Amino acid sequence: MEPIEILKVSNIPTFLVDDLNKSYLMHDHHHINDPDALKRVVALVGGGDAKVDRGLLSLLPNVKMISIFGVGYDGVDVQAAIEKGISVGHTPGVLNDDVADLAMGLLLSVARQIPRADQFVRAGDWVDGPFNLTKKLTGSSLGIVGLGRIGQAIAKRASAFDMKISYTARTQKSDLPYPYFPSVKALAAEVDFLLAITPGGDSTRGMINQEVFEALGPKGYFINVARGSVVDQPAMIKALQNKVIAGAGLDVYLDEPRIAPEIRHLPNVVLTPHIASGTFETRRAMADLALANLAAFIAGTKIPALVPECQAVLGS
Ligand code: NAP
């Protein structure tokens, strides 16, 4: 039987590559030495950072499935995929806990300045006097931008810290007890901590902008575990440099992993390298779902986790 050929379009963990190699003939987008393979490839696999545009799809006449290892798929031109009858799968749900845990970690790190306190002890500065006082997290207000699967997991954890939770999203959730704000700016004006956890892409691009930072104010903190693109990054850097806001906790950036030097030099930020879902357990669960999506496509059975746009248009 002819092997089923698959193209890897971005970095994915070695254990996922190993599993894919057991069932499929794998090609690597960056090291393809057999141009004819592009005509034989039936599926693409890549991480949440994968860029799959119309141009790439036009080189791949037989691709009918894109399996994304990640819940966010903003690098995939889903409209172009749908037009070509291509299904797009992703890995929702299995990473909610880890992303919410890291969001809480950033909230605590920013409020209590844990990384700076660690440096303070290591540098031997304690002998010269105590560490500065910080911001209390328990009982503070938290505005969540995007109250979906992960946003709700964050709200659950923040509730245990007695945080006053409110949110904005495309739609108001009548089944949830938190106050809804129709705009990010209105939400920012009401809270101590503003936290972004929406998808990236055109519909959210730059939605956290200068006006939002001004509304959040000099005692307010911004946390981003969504995508770098949801923020007007130059406006954020200015807001942090000029103390328009007090600080930020960031897991995601524009043009990552190349981080703007201005961000790296800011004293009032806590930075993590896009690791919100990065535990052994969760990356394994994500790999299993990405493999299951692919296997279902090959078998012609129901794909477990199609992206909503494909569910709406193609059905499953
Ligand atoms: P989800 O369940 O689809 O929730 C997305 C939420 O964002 C929903 O509440 C949605 O509103 C809201 N939203 C979408 N577009 C919006 C817009 N234009 N304006 C305002 N709100 C908008 O997705 P999820 O599973 O929670 O994941 C959310 C995102 O987190 C992913 O797409 C990804 O970008 C990011 N993420 C980051 C990491 C990381 O490593 N840092 C890991 C995983 C995920 P409605 O409820 O009204 O539809």
Architecture blueprint of SSEs:
Elements: E1 5-8, H1 14-23, E2 25-28, H2 37-40, E3 43-47, H3 54-58, E4 65-69, H4 78-83, E5 87-89, H5 96-112, H6 114-122, E6 141-145, H7 149-160, E7 164-168, H8 184-188, E8 193-196, H9 210-216, E9 221-224, H10 233-241, E10 247-250, H11 261-264, E11 269-271, H12 280-299, H13 308-314
Parallel strand pairs: 1-2, 1-3, 3-4, 4-5, 6-7, 6-8, 8-9, 9-10, 10-11
The structure holds NADP nicotinamide-adenine-dinucleotide phosphate.
NADP nicotinamide-adenine-dinucleotide phosphate binds at residues 71-72, 92, 95, 99, 146-151, 168-171, 197-200, 203-204, 225-227, 251-252, 274, 276-277.
Task: Give a structural overview.
It is a single chain. The longest helix is centred in the last third of the chain and has 20 residues. A six-stranded parallel sheet has the order 7-6-8-9-10-11. It has two domains: 124 residues, NAD(P)-binding Rossmann-like Domain (Rossmann fold, 3-Layer(aba) Sandwich); 176 residues, Rossmann fold. The protein is built from 13 helices and eleven strands. The mean pLDDT is 96. With 316 residues, the protein is α/β, with parallel strands linked by helices. 36% of the residues lie in helices and 15% in strands. Bound molecules: NADP nicotinamide-adenine-dinucleotide phosphate. The site of NADP nicotinamide-adenine-dinucleotide phosphate has 29 residues, from helix 7.
